[in-house]
Amino acid sequence: MGFLLSKSMDANFKKQQEFMLHNARLQMERQILMQNQMRERQLAMQIAWSREFLKYFGTFFAVTAVGLAAGAVKKRKPALLAPIVPLSFIFAYQMDSAYGTLIYRMRGEAQSILASEQDRLDLPHGTPTFDSIEKARRAKSHLGSFLEK
C-alpha cells in the first residue's frame, strides 16, 4: 500500500517539476521578449531624437554658414569661414546618426568587442553574487544587525 502511494506521489512530484520548469521557461521567454521590446523602443526614441535634433542643428548650420560666407565676402576675410569646418563635422555626425549607417557600424564594432575583447567588459570585483549583494544590503541596513541576533 505504501509503495503504491509512494509511486503515485513520485509521479505527481515529477509532473509538478515538469510544470514548474515549463512555467519558468515561459516566464523567461516573456521576460526576454519584454526586455527586447523595451530596448527596441528606447533605440527608436534615440533615433527619433537624433532626427529631431538634426532639423534644428541643420537650420542653425545653414544660417551660420550663409552668414559667415556673406561676412567673409563682404569683409574680405576668409578666416571668417573657419567655424564652418568644425560645424560641418558635427552636422555630418548628426546626419550619419539620424539617417546613415552609424548604428550598423556601432553594432558591428560591439559584436567585434564581444567576440575578441571580452576582458574589457569585466566588472570591477567581478559579477555581483547573491552573497555580495546581501552583504552590502546588511551593511547599509540599520535593522539588519538587529534582526540577525
Automatic annotation (TrEMBL):
GO cellular component: plasma membrane
InterPro entries assigned to the protein according to its UniProt record, in alphabetical order: Plg-R(KT)
UniProt keyword annotations, A-Z: Membrane, Receptor, Transmembrane, Transmembrane helix
GO biological process, one term: positive regulation of plasminogen activation
Keyword Iron part of the UniProt annotation: no
Keyword Secreted: no
Residues annotated as transmembrane: 53-73, 79-104
Name of a matching Pfam family: DUF2368
Superkingdom in the source lineage: Eukaryota
Protein name as catalogued: Putative plasminogen receptor (KT)
Native organism: Scophthalmus maximus
Lineage: Eukaryota, Metazoa, Chordata, Craniata, Vertebrata
